[in-house]
Amino acid sequence: MIWNSGWRLASAVSNAGGLGLLGAGSMYPEVLREHIQKCKKATEKPFGVNVPMLYPNLEEIIDIIIEEGVKIVFTSAGNPATYTSRLKEEGITVVHVVSSVKFALKAQQAGVDAVVAEGFEAGGHNGREETTTFTLIPMVREKIDIPLIAAGGIATGNGMLAAMILGADGVQIGSRFVASNESSSHIAFKKKVVEAKEGDTLLTLKELAPVRMMKNKFFEDVIALYATNPTTEQLKELLGRARAKRGMFEGDLEEGELEIGQIAGLIHDIKPAASIVEEIINDFNKAKKAVVATL
To answer: pTM for this structure?
Structure first.
C-alpha cells in the first residue's frame, strides 16, 4: 500500500470500524511522523503502521513510531526478530507479514502477537513461493498457535468469510482500498485499477524483490529484458529509483510501476473507505447467513 495509505485512508478505515494502517514504505521518517500526528487528530480509534523492512532509515522509523506512541506495528519483508522485542518492550502489538509456513513459524518464534499470511495473489512485494491464499491459510493455521490474519486476493465479504472458514481470525485488505476516495494514489491509477480485468497483473522481478504489478509499457520492458537473460544489475538499472512513486502517486501509467493485486478484476468503483468497510461487513454477514442456512 505504499503511495496509497496515508493518514486520510488509515483514519477513515479506523473510524469505520476497521484497523487503518499507515504505509511507511513510501515515507521519509519525518513524513511518517507528520502522518502519524495527523492520523491521531483524525481518529480516536486504534490505527497502526506497516513497516516494510527492505527500505532504508529503519532505525529512525522505529524511533518515531515509539516516540509518537503508536500501539500497533505490522512488519514485513524482513526478519521479524530484528525489532519485535524492542517494540513489545514499549507495549506495542507486533504483527508480521509472511508468505509461507516456514516464515510464519519464524515469526511466532520471534514473539510476534499475530501473523498475516499473504498469498501470492496480493499486489506489491510478494513471496517467492507463489502459494495461493486458499492454500496458505490452512497450512499456516495447522502450524501456529497465535492469531492468523489472511491477506491476498480478498476484497469482498465473501472472500473474508472464505478466509475465516479456512482458519483465519481476520483479514487484511489492500487493493480494494486503493480505489477509495481517501487513498493518496493518483486518480489515474485508481481508474486504471477499476478498469482492470482478469490477467492484467503478474508477479515478476523475483531476482530483486518479487512484485505484482499491472501490465503496461514498463512491464513489457521488463519482459523484453528477461528475454535477454539479464544480470541482476541490468534489472536494477531498468527498475531505477522511485518507479512505484512515478506510477501510483504521480500517475504515469506507461513508465511507472503499478502495484495491485489480482483481485483488481473485482474492483469496479471508487468510493469512500467507510462505504467499502460497510459493504464488506454487510456482504460478510449475508454470506455467513446463507452458509448457515444450507447446513
So the answer is: 0.93
